[in-house]
Amino acid sequence: MRFLRNATLALWAGGLSFGAQAQAPVLTTFPVGATTVTVSALATNRNTIWELVWGPDNFIWMTERSGRISRVNPTTGQVVPVVTIADVTETGESGLLGMAITPAATPAAYWVFVVYNYTDQGQLKEKLVRYTYADGALANPLVLLGNIVATTTHSGSRLLILPDRTLLMTTGDAQLQPQAQNTASLNGKILRLNLDGTIPANNPIAGSRLYTLGHRNPQGLTQLPNGNIYSSEHGPNNDDEINKIEAGRNYGWPTVEGNCNLPAEMTFCAANNVREPLTTWTPTIAPAGLAYYDHPAIPGWRGSLLLAVLKDSKLTQLTLNNTGSAIITRTDFLTTFGRLRAICVSPEGRVYVGTSNRDGRNTPGPTDDRILVLENRMYVTSTARGAGSFSFELFPNPASRQATVQLPAPNAWLTVRDLLGRPVLTLHPNGTTATLNLANLRPGSYLVQAEGPNGKSTRKLVVE
């Protein structure tokens, strides 16, 4: 196991390259600023792709709504089935939904969390299950949360593991609109649990899994390195939303649709600590998977949310301001591949998008559903550029609350990543010296990546 961990660190330190992407046939291209983004198909003939997650094994993990979980080789596109969950009920919009993955005790064994609908005594329900992945198989399913009221629509559900090793889970209102405001109900909420299913002691309501309330059907969830959390949410016939998620806040549904701009809404918002959305769409677009992009491969997308859209069949870039408190532009791409539901970003800056044309809401093409790869094929990784010519100092190391980075030149980006490659902190210092605030990071090993005009370099950092 020690050799595997060291080998993984060496690959990350070599520029986060885990094998070159095969040059699949080009389906189309489009510009993002001065960058040409190439679109190709990584995998085809799937059935309603619901989730894509970049795994700790450097494979793409995929759920399909019928109950199948697979690992997809990002270089060859080979789809390796892992398990088909027998008690998944796929009906209407229900079935196997969101997934999240985190390491357990060793690099070769980790936990896989999934949420899905099932039938209990003739009634449709929803549950959260944790599996252990080891030796190529998922085993030891443990139900962390079950018996959630469900229906064939408005089930959510995305999962997100936070750096403090708690889990967020979105739930829809299951067409029981008043339950979104009922703190005793699990519907129409974002829930927060420990990874063993227990309730965190610092949740907004003591003894409750509730993290936020007043949601209709949130189907996208992501966190930025600065800790900001964002969700996409389906509105009724108006006001699809992108929300900044803040613990304990109320998001208004069903009294408030979109912003607090009607008399009854303004009264409710003032009395109930309602957080207004960052942006809305009327007519609705059906927003789904949400990811954060901050990689030099496609500079025009840096600092943006990328949103997979179902009804309007597009990928939308949502450019954030410096603090992440506002969306300043919305730009649409990828409008010719039908319904888009799932999205993930690799450590090498490639974007993987899953289509959802076999979900009963569209006419599928002959190779649907597909995982599409969006990439800048002209981007050269640091290994090929000779990253050894670009170095920086990092001290103290080990560090506790903060560390100092001394750069060889200004205008560099700093990214701190965990050993899964997930960014946990980003910084763009003005000069050649920067201070990393480590107070919110758990003790352990991290990788500090510095990239400037002259190259890129990575160093290991130990946080005590």
UniProtKB/TrEMBL annotation:
All copies of domain Secretion system C-terminal sorting, residue ranges: 394-463
Entries under InterPro entries matching the protein: 6-blade_b-propeller_TolB-like, Glc/Sorbosone_DH, Quinoprot_gluc/sorb_DH_b-prop, Secre_tail
Keywords: Signal
Glucose/Sorbosone dehydrogenase domain segment(s): 49-361
Pfam families: GSDH, Por_Secre_tail
Annotated signal sequence range: 1-22
UniProt protein name: PQQ-dependent sugar dehydrogenase
